[in-house]
């Protein structure tokens, strides 16, 4: 179990008669960039919400960072970071205040918070706007800030739910560079996305169709297997 | 504890940064306090009267003058027949019709006990009953004077009971002294319940609550982190409101003001707990406002501010027990006007304390980090 950051078996979530996630099984190794793909409504977000302890699984087992997602959700939360689709920093607080708040509720000391704040601001070049409310930042900066804040407590695993929605290709590029840096530093990245070019950046991808994981391998292997040129084609063949 | 401090700090930063919220929390309630305390009066100051004098005698004119001399009555018209008078009432121009019958003076002098008729427009019950009361006492006095004037000791004067009443706790019956503390209690509770109900829902709408739910924060920390800042807001409002009431209405502060604040804290915790409880069940701010208003309306109309709890039906009186507002108003009136001590308000304390525990436990219990 220790070599895996995430280990899931037969994970299922039903809402009444509707099965949103249908017995999915996969493992994610430590330090891996794991792409979690699927059409809208395929169950990606629901599956992810079970992994991060926001939603209780109906059936199946799962371990994240070594803890059971059924019984130890609160312990998992110490070791993971999460960046949601919705921008989830406080728009009326400044960059600094947001970092301080999230650092604070993760139980960081004052010293650690100051250090983290400087680090993040340096990395993202936010010194000029440090005292402006986050609402005033351009979307690309906001998203990179949200990513940085989600890792304020140095989690082993970071969950990113469509992190690059609505930003231009240049910013997306920058964003992925940061993701690589974090993966190189040993963090496990679990990312959902719509963009098939982004799927190519992942070490391995899984493709969800109607609640089931239909394919799971490295992008190259998948392209071979489905006799396709691009991940786009793979996706279309599967989703059809 | 440290985590809680960060939560509270963040909430205060947001409150002080919100340019619209701050005046809303301070100036608006004070304006309401001033306007409502002056306006919401049960005192009947002007009763429109129509007098139909069919007698046209010395005595009937004397009675008319007596009524007119009273500054609570204004004579609308003095028609000759009752039909005209009824028409005035139909048009809602008259509250009371006083009919003096023909031969009123003559039958009085004959000792025949003539009868005056009072017709009351009871659409406005309060105006009607109080007006009749005024009129009765005027006629009573007129009657007594008349008796002594004509020296006809039909009634043994010694047997007459003299009633001397004195108003305790509010000797001049200043209506604002009675209303201002109650309205202040109402406004404080109202503001805090809405603020707290809206707050969590707002975070849910924006999505920040999800971000908080993936942190290892404890449920009680989260709820307390919301409760403490709004408790402070409520206490500030209470303080400003008390100062304003003292300066503007010169309300009496007979009891220990500290008791008001200690009780106020317990009460605000109870009300905030309810607000937070509501917010846990609402997905949008609209839903939260609707549910909050459901409670606010019941609380306000059944808190004893406008209608005394004692005159409600028995079952309704029991309904006021889980109403934190009713206890708050009772306490503020007792302490400010009567100078009651802790022992006198122990029941209010007990009930409010229970409510605070129940509402907040439910709020913590119903706050779900995981669905």
TrEMBL record, chain A:
<keyword id="KW-0812">Transmembrane</keyword>
<dbReference type="GO" id="GO:0005524">
    <property type="term" value="F:ATP binding"/>
</dbReference>
<dbReference type="InterPro" id="IPR003593">
    <property type="entry name" value="AAA+_ATPase"/>
</dbReference>
<feature type="domain" description="ABC transporter">
    <location>
        <begin position="6"/>
        <end position="235"/>
    </location>
</feature>
<dbReference type="GO" id="GO:0016020">
    <property type="term" value="C:membrane"/>
</dbReference>
<keyword id="KW-0472">Membrane</keyword>
<keyword id="KW-1133">Transmembrane helix</keyword>
<protein>
    <submittedName>
        <fullName>ABC transporter ATP-binding protein</fullName>
    </submittedName>
</protein>
<dbReference type="GO" id="GO:0016887">
    <property type="term" value="F:ATP hydrolysis activity"/>
</dbReference>
<dbReference type="InterPro" id="IPR003439">
    <property type="entry name" value="ABC_transporter-like_ATP-bd"/>
</dbReference>
<keyword id="KW-0813">Transport</keyword>
<dbReference type="InterPro" id="IPR027417">
    <property type="entry name" value="P-loop_NTPase"/>
</dbReference>
<keyword id="KW-0067">ATP-binding</keyword>
<keyword id="KW-0547">Nucleotide-binding</keyword>
<dbReference type="Pfam" id="PF00005">
    <property type="entry name" value="ABC_tran"/>
</dbReference>
TrEMBL record, chain B:
<keyword id="KW-0812">Transmembrane</keyword>
<feature type="transmembrane region" description="Helical">
    <location>
        <begin position="222"/>
        <end position="245"/>
    </location>
</feature>
<feature type="transmembrane region" description="Helical">
    <location>
        <begin position="348"/>
        <end position="367"/>
    </location>
</feature>
<dbReference type="InterPro" id="IPR013525">
    <property type="entry name" value="ABC2_TM"/>
</dbReference>
<dbReference type="Pfam" id="PF12698">
    <property type="entry name" value="ABC2_membrane_3"/>
</dbReference>
<keyword id="KW-1133">Transmembrane helix</keyword>
<feature type="domain" description="ABC transmembrane type-2">
    <location>
        <begin position="144"/>
        <end position="370"/>
    </location>
</feature>
<comment type="similarity">
    <text>Belongs to the ABC-2 integral membrane protein family.</text>
</comment>
<feature type="transmembrane region" description="Helical">
    <location>
        <begin position="178"/>
        <end position="201"/>
    </location>
</feature>
<keyword id="KW-0472">Membrane</keyword>
<dbReference type="InterPro" id="IPR047817">
    <property type="entry name" value="ABC2_TM_bact-type"/>
</dbReference>
<keyword id="KW-1003">Cell membrane</keyword>
<protein>
    <submittedName>
        <fullName>ABC transporter permease</fullName>
    </submittedName>
</protein>
<dbReference type="GO" id="GO:0005886">
    <property type="term" value="C:plasma membrane"/>
</dbReference>
<feature type="transmembrane region" description="Helical">
    <location>
        <begin position="289"/>
        <end position="309"/>
    </location>
</feature>
<dbReference type="InterPro" id="IPR051449">
    <property type="entry name" value="ABC-2_transporter_component"/>
</dbReference>
<feature type="transmembrane region" description="Helical">
    <location>
        <begin position="257"/>
        <end position="277"/>
    </location>
</feature>
<keyword id="KW-0813">Transport</keyword>
<dbReference type="GO" id="GO:0140359">
    <property type="term" value="F:ABC-type transporter activity"/>
</dbReference>
């Amino acid at each position: 179990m220790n070599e895996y950051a995430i280990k899931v078996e037969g994970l299922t979530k039903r809402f009444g008669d509707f099965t949103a996630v249908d017995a999915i099984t996969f493992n994610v190794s430590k330090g891996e960039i794991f792409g979690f793909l699927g059409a809208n409504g395929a169950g990606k977000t629901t599956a992810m919400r079970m992994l991060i302890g926001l939603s209780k699984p109906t059936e199946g087992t799962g371990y994240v960072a070594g803890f059971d997602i059924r019984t130890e959700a609160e312990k998992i939360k110490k070791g993971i970071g999460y960046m949601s689709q919705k921008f989830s920093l406080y728009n009326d607080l400044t960059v600094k205040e947001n970092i301080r708040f999230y650092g604070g509720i993760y139980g960081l000391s004052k010293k650690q918070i100051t250090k983290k704040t400087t680090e993040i601001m340096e990395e993202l070049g936010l010194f000029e706007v440090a005292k402006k409310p986050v609402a005033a930042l351009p979307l690309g900066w906001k998203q990179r800030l949200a990513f940085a804040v989600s890792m304020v407590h140095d989690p082993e695993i970071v969950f990113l739910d469509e992190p690059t929605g609505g930003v231009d290709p240049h910013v997306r590029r920058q964003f992925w560079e940061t993701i690589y840096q974090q993966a190189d530093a040993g963090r496990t990245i679990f990312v959902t996305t719509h963009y098939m070019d982004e799927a190519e950046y992942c070490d391995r991808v899984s493709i969800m169709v109607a609640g089931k994981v239909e394919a799971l391998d490295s992008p190259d292997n998948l392209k071979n297997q489905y006799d396709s040129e691009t991940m786009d084609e793979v996706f279309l063949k599967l989703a059809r | 504890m440290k985590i809680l401090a960060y939560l509270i700090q963040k909430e205060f930063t947001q409150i002080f940064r919100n340019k619209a919220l701050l005046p809303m929390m301070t100036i608006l309630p004070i304006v309401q306090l001033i306007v409502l305390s002056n306006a919401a009066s049960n005192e009947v100051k002007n009763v429109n009267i129509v007098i139909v004098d069919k007698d046209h005698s010395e005595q009937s004119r004397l009675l008319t003058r007596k009524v007119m001399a009273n500054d609570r009555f204004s004579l609308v018209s003095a028609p000759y027949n009752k039909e005209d008078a009824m028409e005035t009432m139909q048009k809602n121009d008259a509250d009371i019709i006083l009919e003096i019958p023909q031969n009123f003076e003559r039958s009085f002098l004959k000792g025949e006990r003539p009868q005056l008729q009072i017709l009351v427009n009871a659409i406005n019950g309060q105006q009607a009953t109080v007006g009749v009361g005024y009129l009765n006492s005027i006629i009573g006095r007129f009657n007594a004077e008349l008796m002594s004037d004509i020296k006809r000791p039909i009634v043994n004067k010694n047997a007459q009971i003299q009633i001397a009443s004195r108003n305790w706790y509010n000797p001049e019956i200043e209506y604002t002294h009675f209303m201002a503390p109650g309205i202040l209690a109402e406004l404080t509770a109202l503001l805090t319940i809405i603020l707290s109900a809206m707050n969590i829902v707002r975070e849910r709408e924006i999505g920040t609550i999800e971000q908080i739910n993936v942190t290892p924060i404890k449920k009680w920390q989260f709820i307390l982190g919301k409760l403490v800042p709004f408790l402070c807001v409520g206490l500030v409002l209470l303080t400003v409101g008390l100062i304003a009431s003292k300066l503007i209405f010169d309300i009496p502060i007979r009891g220990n003001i500290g008791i008001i604040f200690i009780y106020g804290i317990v009460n605000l915790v109870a009300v905030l707990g309810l607000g937070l409880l509501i917010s846990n069940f609402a997905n949008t701010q609209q839903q939260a406002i609707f549910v909050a208003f459901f409670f606010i309306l019941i609380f306000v109309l059944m808190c004893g501010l406008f209608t005394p709890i004692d005159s409600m039906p028995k079952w309704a009186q029991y309904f006021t027990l889980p109403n934190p507002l009713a206890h708050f108003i009772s306490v503020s009136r007792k302490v400010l006007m009567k100078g009651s001590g802790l022992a006198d308000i122990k029941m209010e304390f007990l009930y409010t304390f229970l409510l605070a525990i129940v509402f907040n436990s439910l709020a913590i219990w119903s706050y779900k980090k995981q669905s």
